[in-house]
Structure formats: C-alpha cells, structure tokens
Fold:
Amino acid sequence: MNGQLDQLLDLICETPDGSKKIPMLEEAIRLADYENILPLQLDLRYDLIYNSVFYGDRLKTITTFPRYLSLIDDNIEKVNEEDILHQLWGFKYILDHVVDFYQISWSKINSLTQEFKNRCIQYGYSLRYYYEIKTKHYIYLKKVEEAKASFDRYWQCTKDQLSDCEACELDFHVDYYLFINNYDRAVKAAKPIFEDKLHCKEVPHITYPKFLLYYVKQGRFKEAKEIIDKSYKLIQTNQSFLEYLEGYITYYAIINPIMGIKIFTNHLKWALDSRNERHKLVFFTTSWQLWESLSTVSKKKEYILRLPENTPFYSEKGKYKIGDLISYCKKQAMLIAANFDRRDGIGNALDYINSIKANVSNNKRW
Structure:
C-alpha cells in the first residue's frame, strides 16, 4: 500500500460520517482500484454508499453500486459473509431511493427489486425488506390493494440482519397507515418513537414531518404547529432531508407566508445542488405556492433576499421580484412533474402539484 493511500485511510478513520468524508472516500477508492486491493475496494465503496445515502448525493449511491456489485460477483470465492451482507444492505439503499430519479424506468426498478429478492433467497436471508420495499413502491404508485397485500406478506417474514432497525420499521408502518388513512394505527406505531424509546439516524427526524403533512392536509393547524416547534431543528442542517421540508413550507404558505421566506432562503441551495428529482419536485412545488400566497397577502412586489450565488436569476443587489420567484419555482415543478409522469405512465406528479395548490387555496388563513 502506498503512503498516500495509507495517510488517506487514517484521515478517513478520524473523520466522522458526513458530507466532508465523501470526497476522501472517492479518492481512496481511486487509489485502492489502482493498487487492486479488493478488501479496501469493497469496504470503501460500502462506506461511500452509506455516507451518500445519509449525508450527501443519493444519485452517487446509484452510480457507485454497479461496480461494487460486480467486484463481489467477480470475486465471490474471495469474499466473506460480511461482504455479502454489506452488498445486500447496499442493494437496500438503492431500492429505497431509486424511484426518486425519473431517469430510471420502472422496468429497471422492478428488475433490481427482483434481483434483490433472488439474492436474499440465494444467501438465506429473510424477504421481510423485499416486501417492505414493494409496499413502498406501491404506496408511491398509489396502488392501495397491492400495498395491503405486500404489507401483509411483510408481516409474515421474520426479522434478521437484513431487516431495518426497530425505529425505521415503525416509521415505515407510519407511512403505510397514513397512506390507507388509518390515523389511529399510525399514531400507535409512532408512540415509541415520540416517547423517545426508539430512535436512529433518521428517526424521529423523518417521522415528525409525515404527521405534519397529514395535519396540514386535514386543516389541523394547532397540531401542525406543535410538530414544527419540536421537529424543524432535527432536519434543518442535513440536505438529505430536503423532501421533508414539504409540510413546513406548505404550512407557512397557508398560515403566514412571510414566515416561510426564511425556510425558502435557507434551503434553496439544497434544491439547486440536489440531483434527487423527486425531492426537488417537492421543494419547488411548495415554494411556488408559498410565493403565490405571498403575492396575494403582501403589497410588496419585490423582496431583498440572500439567495445562493448559483441561483439562475441571482442578483448581486439581493433584490428579487415575487413574479420571478413564482415563475422559476413553477417552471421547475412542472418540468420535473412531466418527467415523472412520463416515466410512471400516470399523472401522479401533476396530481401532487394540484393537491398542494388545492390545500393552500382551501385552507388559507390570511
């Protein structure tokens, strides 16, 4: 092992998981590939996938995975059980986010899901997560009966090393019960999370916003405000939580658009830098409605804002017309929605935009 790689590995070990670790891992992978050191090639790629999922660019996870997969398959006689388990966890991370990219067809998504199932059977792992991800995909496609059937199969499978942690599984249960409009079961599932008996890297961070969005849709704004007061601080510094700003921005579009400006300006850079198309759809749709609300409630036609320099209509003077902000957010949302609806073969993305518009219009408190 050369000295440069050795020093880089020491630095990686000293660096906490996070976005700053990702470029170090990429450089270490390049050096490990050059020296053809298989254990490092595998471990570093798994570490990169993990950090990209929780702290960075999830598209990087998808582009990294094929080489990681082939390294194990091409060297199956040299790898151990932990390598196989890591490979399947990498597969899980892919499947959990693959629908977020309209560039990936459903034939490819279904093929990857089936391949994951086949490998679980091949290596003797439970199909519990397979049915979990199938349920999530059916929820995305709004296929109620298929989701119910898959959720039932999920319950029939045992837990093992490939299962999500208890907190993540309960958060998944919340997803499902809110999808079928069983609020009481969702609250019951979330109880150990909200009582701080169960938590992990993403829970309760992503659980609170799901109830927030439900309360906003139901017009239950007192409960929504209680969620905001305790939860925004959990997600405000990690750009992987971009999609979970949905309920916060929608709430302020309905209740007090001026208060929502700060969330928009704080997180616009996340959306501009993101390559996750579904997260961008959520941000630009809700921001569009925020600025539409502000154009109605405020007499001002122009605001002084501190926006990131890579804003397409960036102004050094910091002056921005509401009309330009509306136009940009609307254009981004509609373009992305069209791409998703083309991929999905249904109108879910456009329906999503219309549902946010209707929610704001029907519940506005100004």
About this structure: The chain has 17 helices and two strands. Strands lie at 302-304, 319-321.
